[in-house]
Amino acid sequence: MVKIEVLGSGCANCKRLEALAKDAVSRLGLQAQVEHVTDIREIIARGLIATPGLAIDGKVVLAGRVPSAAEVEGIIAGAVKG
Length: 82
Hints:
Strand order of the largest sheet: 2-1-3-4
CATH class: Alpha Beta
Number of helices: 3
CATH superfamily: Glutaredoxin
Shape: globular
Largest sheet: 4 strands, mixed
CATH architecture: 3-Layer(aba) Sandwich
Low-confidence stretches: none
Helix content: 40-55%
């Protein structure tokens, strides 16, 4: 199962990215767990300096912005295939 994490404080942008990730997982038909990490120490430990961030299986793949729904789907699909 793929583990997808949204990294951020819980602001509106973080919540938007979480919703986009969940929608992308559904559209792609993936078995994935989507979590929201709000612990600032953990976020910083991963090297993130701008939120929101997106990590797939522990690897940060996006930081500092909310991409389009199509881009989130492409990022997740590419990470799962690659």
